[in-house]
């Protein structure tokens, strides 16, 4: 029988790390990738965020709620990259 944790660590830090990484990846894609290839590179960035979310949650060492935390971090990264890609799409509609 396992002993319960008396004071569990906060898990919000692991979520925020992945969300910030998604923000950085989206910004880097927006700066360095031409508009024709941004969708493909944002997809690659989302894959990296999913891998990062697994790594961060495994590093935390808590088994309770693992799947929920990985899903929340990946969904947050998807939301962040979606907002960034919406900005890219709106920016492409305006004439230069």
Automatic annotation (TrEMBL):
Q: Per the UniProt record, which residue ranges are transmembrane?
A: 12-33, 39-59, 71-93
Top-level taxon: Bacteria
UniProtKB keywords: Membrane, Transmembrane, Transmembrane helix
Protein name per Swiss-Prot or TrEMBL: Uncharacterized protein
The scientific name of the source species is Microbacterium aoyamense
């Amino acid at each position: 029988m396992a002993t319960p944790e008396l004071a569990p660590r906060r898990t919000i830090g692991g979520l925020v790390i992945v969300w910030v990484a998604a923000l950085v990846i989206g910004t880097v894609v927006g700066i360095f990738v031409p508009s024709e290839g941004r969708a493909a590179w944002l997809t690659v960035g989302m894959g990296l965020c999913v891998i990062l979310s697994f790594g961060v949650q495994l590093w935390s060492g808590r088994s309770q709620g693992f799947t929920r935390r990985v899903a929340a971090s990946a969904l947050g990264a998807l939301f962040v990259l979606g907002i960034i890609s919406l900005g890219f799409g709106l920016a492409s509609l305006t004439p230069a």
